[in-house]
Write a structure and sequence with these properties.
The chain is mainly α. Helix content is 47%, strand content 11%. The longest helix has 30 residues, at 46-75.
Length: 192
C-alpha cells in the first residue's frame, strides 16, 4: 500500500504508474490524481499543447500511421476482437435504424448498390492488373472495386472506366479522395 502525495489516500500499488526513480518504483501520485493533473494542464495550455502535438505529427506522421495500420492488422487477427467488433456494430445498427436507413438511401442514390459494369468486365480489369492491389501492389488479397473519382463527387461515374482494384485496407485509407493508382494502360500487362 502506498499513500498518494496528492489526495493523501492509501491505495494498492497497482493504482500507481510505474516510475523507476522512486524508492517504491511507483509514481508518487495515484493514477486518478495524475489523470486530473493532465486534464487541468491541457485545459490551461490547450493551444500550446495542440501546436506541439501537430508539430510532432507532421514530423513523425508516417511512423504513426504505419504503426496504426500494423496495430489494426494484428487486432483483426484476434478472433475475440473481431467478435466484439461485430457485436458492437450490430448493436449500433440496432440502436440507430434511422442512420442506417439514411446511409443506405445515400448509397442507393449514388448507385453503389447497382454498378454499371458486369462481373465479366470486373474480371477483365483484374486480369489486366494481374490481380493485385494497385496501391500496395500486393497479390493474393481480396480486391474491391474502388471509384477513382468518388461517387460523392459531382458528375462521378459508376462505369468500369472509373474503377480500380484495391484491397480493403487501401480502399479505406483512400476514402473519398480522388487518387488514381492505375498505371497507363500500355504499361499494364495481363497476367499470363
Amino acid at each position: 500500500m502506498i499513500v498518494c502525495k496528492t489526495c493523501q489516500v492509501e491505495k494498492p500499488e497497482d493504482e500507481f504508474h510505474r516510475h523507476r526513480d522512486t524508492k517504491t518504483r511507483r509514481h508518487p501520485s495515484c493514477k486518478v490524481c495524475r489523470k486530473a493533473e493532465r486534464r487541468d494542464h491541457y485545459a490551461k495550455n490547450r493551444d500550446r499543447v495542440r501546436a506541439q502535438m501537430r508539430a510532432y505529427y507532421e514530423q513523425h506522421g508516417d511512423v504513426i500511421r504505419q504503426r496504426s495500420v500494423e496495430d489494426k492488422r494484428l487486432r483483426r487477427q484476434d478472433p475475440e476482437y473481431v467478435r466484439r467488433e461485430i457485436d458492437f456494430n450490430r448493436e449500433w445498427r440496432r440502436r440507430n435504424p434511422e442512420k442506417v436507413a439514411a446511409a443506405n438511401a445515400r448509397q442507393r442514390a449514388q448507385g453503389r448498390f447497382n454498378p454499371d459494369w458486369t462481373a465479366e468486365e470486373w474480371q477483365q480489369l483484374l486480369d489486366l492488373y494481374g490481380h493485385r492491389c494497385l496501391a500496395c501492389l500486393e497479390t493474393g488479397l481480396k480486391l474491391q472495386p474502388d471509384h477513382v473519382v468518388p461517387l460523392s463527387w459531382p458528375d462521378a461515374s459508376n462505369a468500369i472506366d472509373n474503377i480500380q482494384p484495391l484491397c480493403g485496407t487501401c480502399n479505406r485509407r483512400k476514402g473519398d479522395r480522388h487518387i488514381d493508382y492505375r498505371p497507363q494502360h500500355e504499361e499494364a500487362q495481363p497476367c499470363p
